[in-house]
Amino acid sequence: MTGANYHRKGFGLKEQVDVELNFDYDSELIQQLRSNGNVMQRGRVTIKLAEAFGFCWGVDRAVSMAYETRKHFPDRQIWITNEIIHNPVVNNNLKRKDIRFVQFNSDGSKNYNEVQADDVVILPAFGASVEELNLLAAKKCEIVDTTCPWVSRVWNRIAKYEKSDFTAIIHGKYNHEETIATSSRSGHYLIVQNLQEAEYVCNFILEGGKKEDFYQKFHKASSPGFDVDTQLVRVGIANQTTMLKGETERIGKLFEKTMLTKYGPDVIDEHFLSPGDTICDATQERQDAMLKMVDEHLDLVLVIGGFNSSNTGHLQEISEAKGLMSYHIDGVDCLLPGNRIRHKSLHEGIKETNDWLPDGEISIGITSGASTPDQVVAEVLERTFVLAETQTAP
Ligand code: SF4
User: How far is the CA of 270 from the centre of ligand 1 (A)?
Assistant: First the structure.
């Protein structure tokens, strides 16, 4: 999109909003921890913070642009097409600034009925679909686009596939906003959530199978009218930027091997295109830091971030794969009275667990997703110290 009603950068008010942003999201405790080599001991609890955690560059930029937008358009109705990022604290702060969130209809579609011409609409860090952009342009809204450049990088890849008539195989979650936005830029696409689904597709390419089963399995995760006979012949790999990097790489290699087996090395370029490096730096750094942290001696791990945050969920996966006692929580309210914790388990959804904080000396590893402010992490730490102290009090 271009034109006077389309804004891809801030409004030159960064310095003004920085004061507010620091007040809303920064934490002195976390700064202390950082300057102390990411380790802190209080009473019987030792905290070890991952080397990379919390707000990423793209989220920082999106939130800052949203604050600037409010300052630049003090009297206009402002909307966000969805959550600006997957964090309830940030989203609630924006609501307090009278920024409204587009609501969902009962069928899962978004309800733009109340959005009027001349309203300002902010697109979130994970982007918006082509259909949404067309609708907003037709309504003549003012658009502030905070889409992270890492996401745009994947879209450039998709455009290349589209031009060469390749089907985009997207490693992602079909109902995640970023993947919805990415797939909307592709004529033919198939979304695989994990290696198992990729193996199913590759087996189908090599061995064939019942088409009805294939269509049933991917009916929510493929382009309309997907045809296995013609649209699995030329494939290019793309990804949701926050997936597990190792898994995206394995999926890419699996498709490459499959197309090599089927068509041979001489014409492989006509049948397979790799994704390039499209897992974002921030996701990779947080995953690498988590892999390093889980190798240390830890009694338990707290992974802090929105329950619908994909990158936070992947940090939890790393911890669980290591066999550590690990709890994904979205903030301090998850630490309940009576040594109970409310958390999201990978396989059982949101649940409560008793006696999460063990007796005696304990080491707790802490990390947080790319959309989690430091203040949220600090609140969890403070409450944990207090809980540990009261638990041992006579
Ligand atoms: S996690 Fe990566 S892609 Fe997502 S907003 Fe942050 S920097 Fe951008």
Answer: 31
pLDDT in tens, 130-141: 999 999 999 999
Pocket test for ligand 1, best of 59, 60, 278 (most atoms within 8 A of CB): 59
* Protein residue whose Cα sits closest to atom 4 of ligand 1: 58
In this prediction, residue 393 carries a pLDDT of 54
Q: How many Å lie between the centroid of ligand 1 and the Cα of residue 245?
A: 13
25-56+282-392 under CATH 3.40.1010.20, yes or no: yes
Cβ 49 under 6 angstroms from ligand 1: no
> Kind and range of the H or E element at 247?
helix 245-263
Give me the pLDDT at residue 392, please: 61
**Cα 181-183-189 angle, rounded to 5 deg:** 175
Give the residue whose CA is nearest to atom 6 of ligand 1.
58
pLDDT band at 231 (very low <50, low <70, confident <90, very high): very high
150-273: CATH architecture? 3-Layer(aba) Sandwich (3.40)
- Per-residue confidence at 82, pLDDT binned at 50, 70, 90? confident
pLDDT digits over 325-345, tens only? 999 999 999 999 999 999 999
- The residue whose CA has the least distance to atom 8 of ligand 1 is 58
d(CA 106, CA 79): 20
The architecture CATH gives domain 57-148: 3-Layer(aba) Sandwich (3.40)
Residue 179's CB: how many other CB atoms inside 10 A?
28
Q: How far apart are CA 102 and CA 206, in angstroms?
A: 44
